[in-house]
Task: structure prediction
Amino acid sequence: MMRCARVGPIVSATVMLLGCASTTHGQSAPMAAGEIGAGFGVAAVNEIGPYRGALVGPSFDIRWTRYPAASLTWGVDVGVYGINDETFTLGDLGSGVAVDVLQTRTLLISLQSTRNGWYIRPGAGLAFRAYDGLRSLSPPAVREPWGVVFAGSVAVGKELNVSRRVRLGIEAFTNLSSAPDAVTRWVIGVQFLPLISY
Result:
C-alpha cells in the first residue's frame, strides 16, 4: 500500500508534465501583424499621346502592409518614377514643340496573394504626374502644375526569406494612369523590395 501511495503522485506529476509539454509544442509563433519596407529599381515611363515618348530611370517604392490571412495582405504603396526627369531640357524638344516632364508618383491601395513564395498584387488609386514643359513657342515656356488622375497597377514577383523577420521581394510591375481629359501614362519596371515584419 505504501508503494502504491508513492507511485500515485509520481504518475500524476508525469502526466501533468507531458500534457504541458504537448501543449507548448503545439503552439506556433504568432503571425506578424504586417510588413513595412522600401525598395528601388528601374522603370520606363511612357506617355501615350502627342507629347513625349519614353524615359528610363530609377524608381523608388515604399510599402506598408497588414495580414488579414496567412497568404493574403492588403497595404498602401507609394511609388516614384522618372526621378531623373524633374525639369525639361532643350534636348527634350527634338523635332516637336510640345514636351512633358514624365516624373510620376503613385498612391495605391493593393491586395497581394502569395503561394509558395510567388505573389501577385493588383492595386488601384491615384497618380500625381508632372506637366512642367514646353507647350508652344509663344510663349516659349509654359509651367503647368501637377495633375492628379486615376491609376491602376499589378505586380508579380518572388519573396525570399532573408531571416525570421526580413524578406526580400523581387518583382516586375506595371501601372497605368489616365483620365477622360488627360493623356495616358504607362510605367513598367523591375525592383527589389526588402520587407521587415512587425
About this structure: The chain is about 15% helix and 60% strand. The CA atoms of residues 166 and 196 lie 5 Å apart. Confidence is low (pLDDT under 50) at residues 1-5, 20-29.
